[in-house]
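Progress note, sequence design subtask.
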């Protein structure tokens, strides 16, 4: 199986340690990949959750570059920022045999969410899309921390694949 190559990391040290310059450079990559041009997931053009703006940047940018369970208290995550160039190619080329793609449903205080997950297993990197029925939004992307969490995602993927195969028989 051919490996799915990802762009180089965008590292803070390349900006002399200036976080302000770094986050602006990271934002420019996001802006190019999700605002100036639009990714497509299996032929469907993606929208973008713009509001609420956070530091005058789109909400999706905030979700892809910050971490935390409480929305108003999310903090910058340099590991997410380093990989800001990865979601777009994974979304555009989601049918590549190396990537694992599946759907799941999550229930929470915001109701039931239908999500599409795209996993680059070797990098332990996950892109999450929000399927709104008649359109799809890029939602977040992050490194999976720890082997146990990766195994949980891989089990969910295998369960999904088996269920899909059963539907076809």
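Output:
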């Amino acid at each position: 199986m051919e490996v799915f190559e990802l762009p180089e990391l965008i590292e803070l040290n390349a900006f002399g340690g200036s976080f302000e310059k770094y986050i602006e450079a990271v934002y420019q990559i996001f802006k190019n990949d999700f605002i100036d041009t639009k990714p497509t997931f299996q032929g469907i053009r993606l929208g973008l959750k713009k509001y609420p703006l956070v530091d005058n940047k789109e909400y999706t940018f905030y979700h892809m570059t910050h971490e935390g369970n409480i929305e108003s208290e999310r903090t910058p995550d340099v590991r997410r920022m380093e990989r800001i160039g990865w979601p777009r190619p994974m979304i555009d080329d989601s049918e590549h045999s190396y990537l694992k793609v599946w759907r799941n449903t999550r229930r929470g205080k915001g109701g039931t969410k239908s999500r599409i997950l795209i996993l680059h297993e070797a990098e332990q990197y996950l892109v999450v899309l929000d399927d709104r029925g008649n359109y799809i939004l890029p939602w977040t992307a992050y490194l999976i921390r720890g082997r146990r969490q990766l195994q949980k995602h891989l089990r969910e993927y295998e369960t999904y694949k088996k269920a899909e195969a059963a539907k076809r028989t």
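The longest strand covers residues 111-120. Work on this subtask will continue into the next period as scheduled.
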